[in-house]
TrEMBL record:
Top-rank taxon, per record: Bacteria
Primary location recorded for the protein, binned into one broad class: membrane
Protein name (database record): ABC transporter permease
Transmembrane segments: 102-123, 135-160, 200-219, 262-284, 304-327
Subcellular location per the Swiss-Prot or TrEMBL entry: Cell membrane
Membrane topology field: Multi-pass membrane protein
Keyword terms, alphabetized: Cell membrane, Membrane, Transmembrane, Transmembrane helix, Transport
InterPro entries: BPD_transp_1_N, MetI-like, MetI-like_sf
Matches recorded under PANTHER family: D,D-DIPEPTIDE TRANSPORT SYSTEM PERMEASE PROTEIN DDPB-RELATED (PTHR43163:SF8), DIPEPTIDE TRANSPORT SYSTEM PERMEASE PROTEIN DPPB-RELATED (PTHR43163)
Coiled coil: none
UniProt domain ABC transmembrane type-1: residue ranges: 96-327
Species this protein is from: Azohydromonas lata
Higher taxonomy: Bacteria, Pseudomonadati, Pseudomonadota, Betaproteobacteria, Burkholderiales
Family membership noted in the UniProt record: Belongs to the binding-protein-dependent transport system permease family.
Amino acid sequence: MRMRSLSQRLGSVLLTLLGLLLLTFIIGRVMPLDPVLSIVGPDADRSTYDQVYRQLGLDRPLVVQFGYYLRDLLHGDLGNALLTGHAVRDDLARVLPATIELATLAIVVGALLGVPLGVFAATHRGRLGDHAVRLLSLLGHSTPIFWFGMMGLLVFYAWLGWAGGIGRVGLAFDGLLEPVTGLLLVDTLLAGEWEMFGSALHHIVLPASILGLHSMSYISRMTRSFMLSQLSQEYILTARVKGLPERTVIWRHAFRNILVQLLTIIALAYGGLLEGAVLIETVFGWPGFGQYLTSSLLLGDMNAVMGSVLVVGLIFITLNLLSDLLYQVFDPRTRK
């Protein structure tokens, strides 16, 4: 029975990825962007254009093109990127760690702030504290994140000098360290480069905090909603009638029952940060996944776009599977 469930889930994952790739492939072919012109330039003659057109396989039917792409994909070949001239697989391995590092620190900030604020708002429903948290969440969710980024650079970098500027590290350290994991904070610690570690931390704090505040808005609102639902249950009234301390009622009873839902929300928020950090990456000159995907889209580089979409799909599928596993850890009822 367990093997059957596992095979069904695996089949669902493969069908989801296949559908995602097919949809992206079709959209890429109907976009008003010509990848051939991106290679040869607008001044190339017709013969050169036709030669590159055939080399890219664009003269074949769409079904054949997609079939060839899937064949290469099964061999681990994502093609070459027009943007860089390198293999898409190598490009993704280079840009993903920068975004993972930024998004991981951001989700830590968002969860550490959002969860307590949501609990606080729920336990002070209708009072000043609740209104303040809801207003903060509304502002954080509705204000354009690129505006936050520009204001953050203006205030904390240009005026106060508290934060680093654009990029992942200061210009004096750029290119000095051979990457091991691609996570700059980790690599500098492994190499014992403490001055470079300080520079990397100085640069990542501001963009990660802005992204974290954005995710905090969503996490705090959902935490508040989940807590309000639990605090209205009869078992909470029973616990209070028994004379249990309010702190115990809130954290050991009500909060424990929303933990499973909250883990899913945090996982989805993390996935959103990984594929949606493009505006912050653009403002801060962060050489990450979002900036790479956007540049590839504008260039009509379908190999890079398809590879990036595949990565995004795998990220969300992995996070969903991880959420299911955590469900079984924290909620014994789901193990059946």
